[in-house]
Queue: 3 jobs
Job 1
Amino acid sequence: MSDQPTTAPVTAESIEQALLSFLEERTKTAVPPTQDLFASGLVSSMFAMELVVHLEQHYEVAIVGADLKLDNFRTVRQMTELVLRLRDASAAVGGA
Amino acid sequence: MPERRTDPLADGLADELKAIDTLIGDQPEHWDLDGQIPRHLLSTLGAQGWLCAEVAATHGGRGLSSRANGELTAHVGSRCSSLRSVMTSQGMAAWTIQRLANRDQSAELLPQLVSGRLAAVGFSETDAGSDLSTMSTTITLDGDSVVLDGHKVWVTGAYYADLLVVFGQCDGGAAAVVVPASAPGVTVERVADPMGCRAAGHANLRFDSVRLPASSVLGSPGAPLPLLVTTALAYGRISVAWGCVGILRACRNTAARHAATRKQSGKPIGEHQLVGRHLAELFVAEQTASRACEHASDCWDAGSPDMVISTVLAKHVSAGHAATGAASAVQVMASAGARDGHVVARAYRDAKLMEIIEGSNEICQLILAQHAVSTAE
């Protein structure tokens, strides 16, 4: 896994692909993008925090406050949407 | 968020540590015997930003890296685990606010924590310790306000605290709420005669229909309790881990000085092989715990997901070594250290508690075992 911010163009497809690889590496299981990771027991609260830190570092976003809710992390697709939304929001205010 | 920070150790944190030593003086022994640290000292250190030194400069804090704050924590821990415990509580409150709060809440609360107000964080209850999912404290939404009901036990630093960060069940999930200790319906009762960290201000808290503005709830109500607790505890664990490094440094130095000067059977006791082994083991313990903490803090500073597991590892390694190391130090010191208040006697009692709080040895092992299984090649 890479801890460095990504330099590649960030699209829904690239985020989804990177997340699927990250999950497969860590859980040794191939997961479909819409699979409920918590219901399937693949993700513990410890691993959920690893996911938060990974997304923050890799995509240069801050996931705090109200965004730290389970629904944002339930599936790869929902995490992808969260990252895109946070990146759009920070671009809109002239941030990263 | 992973805000990039520089490491101020190279820029003279050594001088700052000397200034802190001057404030602490020779008092830790007396604080231990009295069961109290003078409130004005805590306020002074708090107003200088030392009790939660990672708070960003934009909020008036010192903006230390995890690594530099770790060295600070170990240094204070080598002097007094009670004071270090107050730091852990204050830092955990700040970190919890930073992670869970919205921007306005952070802007209001974080500056208070670096200007002399003190804070503590309540998790455990009578029937909810290692398994916090059984927590019975409730945060009920009621229009523009929320109502807090329940209790917390063994909240470190709560006796001194102006602000209490309290976790409870809320809106189908969980939430953390910030409660002024002076709010109507809040009762703070000191834990009588704690075995260790006797001056850390452990208290039991009761909340009877405590009505607060809805803005007291950090972030959004209904978040998953395990994720909230895991997030908050991460800071507590790394802080306790560094505090244990401090315990080990104090034990190693005290025992080694004594062993070099105290003579029996015609030579310094350190030259007797069985005593020498204690000293070697203390050195190994201190170095091993230091490396585990440095690695974990470097993961925090790099924003690496490995921070999560490396923090549990550091906490477990450091607490275990501190407990065995402190016992060895008492053994080497013998009658010279066997009275309450002495640095190794305090270390012996304080270190044992470190194997219990912020994830007991057993809970840490369960987490590490689960990680070993899930990452098996």
Note: Residues 163 and 180 of chain B are 5 Å apart (CA to CA).
Job 2
Amino acid sequence: MEHAVQEITFHHEPGGKEVVSKIIRTTVILSVITIIELGMGLGMYALPMAEGLKLFLKGVIVILSLAKAFYIVGVFMHLGEEVKNLIMTIVVPLLLFVWFIAAFLYEGNSWKNLRNTYNPKQAVSAPAAPHAAGEQH
Amino acid sequence: MATAQAHTETKWWSGGKSPFNVEYGKLMMWYFLMSDAFTFGAFLISYGTIRFSQNYWPDPNEVFNAFPLAGHANLPLAFVSLMTFILIVSSVTMVLAVHAGHNMDKKGVIKWMIWTVIGGIAFLACQAWEWTHLITGDHAVMINGQIENIGTTVTMNPWGPAANVAAHDGHHVGTPGPVAFGGYFFGITGFHGFHVASGVGINIVMLIMAINGTFERKGHYWMIEKAGLYWHFVDLVWVFVFLCFYLI
């Protein structure tokens, strides 16, 4: 045990030009990814393409968005520079989203199929008051 | 795994110092943001569930194709791209303000905080225009055998599949789309806009404190860092709102 009592907290080494150039590089990466995403979004609208290809492009856009999130959190929010255990307490709980997304989208799809099978007349109209779990703050 | 390792270079906490080597307020800001991520995630997943449960969902390229002062020009996604870039740029100016704070550069902090506040206000102004355009922009829709002009609100959605008729003046006539579209759009972009608005408020307070020299007297600019975390989070959420509502 070293000298106790005083809390030792994080100090960013001031850093000069290389920090700014890292920020600029990240800005360029974020902008380029956004432009690629927009190009794909517009491509899906302007060009005739098969549903399968559209779905593939949407998947690519999702992955590109996750890359943007990684850069924003890692570089702009400096999470990459924190202690590893701190990073883990933030990132590990977010893994719940994997189940969360898969389960609920599956549920929505199943709802559609059931309605189309058993109540085809109402199939187009939306439910009046959709409720989903976890909306409380 | 946590065997007796050497004291040096170990990442495991051994007492006597802050385990995460981070200031309390910043740690709590991280946990707040994590919980806020779950709130936004719940909203977006709920939207996804409803969208997956529908046989038809409006194409964002058709709904969001207007630009201020461009009249009826068909410019899909142009305006929301502008909003996205405004938010990215304001995030960059924020990180530059944090960087200036690390260097105890008061003038730099003030300069970049001013730009960040301007970016936030510009984004809110864009969102106000977009909402107004959606709510007041009428579209001819066939309802119960009659053609009515409705805008996009939480109870009305003109963006359904095309009707088999044309209006007298040859305009496109649609059918009502899923009602949930407006509710989710206004609900989630509104909740995000509320975050932007409170972020602008926080940033203005930080700006005033920086101008008054509060941080200089304290000897550090940690408050700017914490406000910065919040502001980047707002940008981060927009990445996913943009993804879910406009791109796919």
Note: The mean pLDDT of chain B is 89.
Job 3
Amino acid sequence: MDLQNQQRVKDAGEKYGTDCVVILGSSDAEGAEIYAETVTAGDPTYAGPLAGVSLELPVYHVFDPIIRAECDPAAWEEQISMMEMVLDPEALTAAVKGMRDQYSKNAIE
Amino acid sequence: MGKLAGKKLLLLGERDGVPGPAMEACLKDSGAEIIFSATECFV
Amino acid sequence: MSKVGIKSYSYCLNHAPETGSHYGGTPYEAFHSGKEQEYLDALPKHLQSYDHALHYAPNQTYIGGISYEEFEGLKTPWVDNLLPDEKAKRYGKFGELMPEDEFLGLISACDEFELVWLEKSFAEEVSKKLAEDPVITEAIVKRVVRPKNMHELSEIETEYKERAGLPLYFGGKVVGCIRSGHPTDQCLTAHVLMENLAGKASGVLALLHLLKNSGMNPLDLDFVIECSEEGAGDVGQRAGGNFAKAIAEVAGCTNASGCDVRGFCAGPVNAMINAAAQVASGARKNIAVVAGGSIPKLYMNSRDHVKKGLLALEDCVGSFAVLLVPDDGTMPVMRLDVLGKHTVGAGGAPQAVTSALTFEPLQKAGLTFADVDRFAPELQNHEITEPAGAGNVPLANIKMIAALAVMKKAIEKPAMMDFIKQHGTIGYAHTQGHIPAGVPFIGPACEMINEGKIKRAMIIGKGSLFLARLTNLADGASFLIEKPEPVAPTSAVSKDDIKAMILEALGEIAGKLA
């Protein structure tokens, strides 16, 4: 994850705790998993500000039905629906869920 | 009341996935506050 | 005139593993952060030899050593299915894969300000090797061994140890250095200058191959538009330019002028449109669109390659050049009447971007998705990006086009995978930012058009403008390449002809009034 974005997540996580919800738009399941790990257990590459910092934030992929249900349907149709055909929503959702189940606190269900 | 009401959202989008602004458009009326939205590009 | 001819094209790679493993963005950042010693220690064990790079199919596809169609049929993973020796040559139909020592020599030859110092015996050796390259001119060979660019190792050491220079390596040893251009100006540090000089040198190589491929005398080149992602300037004008003229100068194009066009990865497609419009209008007789490559992009994903025990394949600086001339009905043409334009108001949603770049121009041209034989949106090699969790970018982008075709009811949803196979392209380009965005396929598309295998291809470039923190917008542009059609001979109309036509028309009107 971009170092600047790690810093922003860290700042927000330290300020608001697990009231923060991280939502990912990653294209690749493995990439999504690394991002989910970064905002929960800490940066696995040890390169950024979240190295060794466990924020335990609840994290979801935007395709997760829990998040999708909260989205404006018209905006979804216009902005995201095409990508559902392009990417693998189930694999992305599962990859992020795996990390969330292990490391997140205060998850919304 | 939606499940995200009162939450603070951090949106991490991707250019070749779902970019930040697209997620913002979908979640702006969710009752949550969008703290920040970013888009990354891996290429 | 809304078409221009694509006369020729060149594609080159400069193998740069030692430069990249020290100065590529990711290793350089890791070195300075001091937090990733394990990765830095391991990286040298994951480098690919020059010989391996020559045998790696995506590289040969880029330089035209094998055809794109042959590449499509190859067994994957390419890294485990290397090409046989007879297909692993330095020179291809489009350009070459130059070894790193010669690249350092070429960088030195491109230096006007005593910024590059090479150790004397190393400079002499590489100048001899460069002399064997069919496109490297005698003037360039001589520049490598200019006394002011050759120094003793002890002087080189002082320069990088005490005066903010950066060492250059080959064979694990220091063979030279890049000097700092100014004591305080952050735009003229040795690192910035190294990037710019490498961009210039790789651009020169592409332009020289373009001149060879087109058979054009360098003196006949009218204009150069450069479209890399580098920024040359000083503190007063951070990216003032102008790479184009600097490149044309070394290539001996003394009658040419030039300018730079920028737009992140959409730069080259915007430059092509810019150049084509100038040629079509008659403002320029011909234009070479040129871009050198990027050192910071080298080993961008290597952290993950190292972690997974893979070869770090991001070791080549890429470059390309395309020569545009007036359409004479004999060569593939670039159309200017239907261009993909991503407007400010279109928004950044993938479907809005894809629609603006494919559906909208096609609709304007009275065409549908199936009328485009090949779409080339992104051409990054997925063997580099996938292990880093960045996915298969070319495939994702072709899928976006197919999904949009479904949404626009141009194809049925079950036909998506067939559409992707038939109309898509597989990536083979290095992750050099601007280079993989569509333009590597101009060459193969023209070859396939000339061979009668396809009629039309679409070249697409997308740029992540938001990376500069100036706007949240993305950018994109696209154009069509088509097979030529016979051009009607243009007959000059004289004043007398016009007079006769007016008189004739007036006569007809008078007749009707009578």
Note: Chain C has one domain: 3-482.
